[in-house]
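Entry:
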Amino acid sequence: MKVGFIGLGAMGLGMAANLRRAGHDLVVHDLNRTSAATLEEAGATWADSTAGLASQVDVVFTSLPGPVQMREVGTGEGGLLSALKPGSAWFDLTTNSPTVVREVHTVCREHGVELFDAPVSGGPKGARSGKLAIYVGGDAEAFEQHGGILDAIGDQILRVGDIGAGNTAKLVHNCASMIIRSGIAEVFTMGVKAGVEPAALWHALRQGAIGRARTFDRVGDRYLQEAFDPPSFALDLANKDLRLALELAEQFDVPMRAARLVQEDFQEALDRGWGKRDSQTPLLLQNERAGVTIKLSADEVQAVLDRG
């Protein structure tokens, strides 16, 4: 099949190169033609416009700065939908708004084009090496038909639901990353200011129970199953440790904004009489605030872990 690629920035260039390396007949376009030089040398064809590219291809990829650019490239004057043939597939690799991709998806359906939101995780290095997770939202049957091409650019192809689900998963992932890193910086400054050398502290953290586990694995046995009894680490004991940490931070005049928020949840959970339950029990408070129920069976948790 003939494949188009629009958006040859730090991420797009590597992914487009891997599509070409996989043997696909590649047509490319970007606001800056010089960004396509290495691809043209590798045999890709340059298109002078979005519509000019769309008229030639069966599948198109876009890797753009955000929702505004994605909508314009897709539905604007001279955009993809002005020239894509019915039956074509469009994979938008942009980290995007789920609302926007759903709206554009509706317009795509009117033109007989199948849109998938397919944001990626792995950074420019992963884009070049093909070590990318791709979170896909879109119709299951259409994904069976078109999704195989994603193997050329990523090693973890994850259809997570219908249109918009791909970006929802990506935004959850990135927001978690930002929160976790901020928390690490907070406690790291406390440890260094209390006298521990940074490299030794980092090594110590990596070798602890949390450091040895994949970031999201440790919520599987408790929080995701609502399995808090009997505890593996009681909330009373966790609260004692948190209190001691905050006392240490106060001693060295280290601000602990994230830890203070955790302490507030701990105290609310203790006030409800949850002290003898597992230390993950306060996470239920967020479920209540959000108005959601999250409860997987042990088999469902294991099935996810078995996927690798």
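The mean pLDDT is 96.
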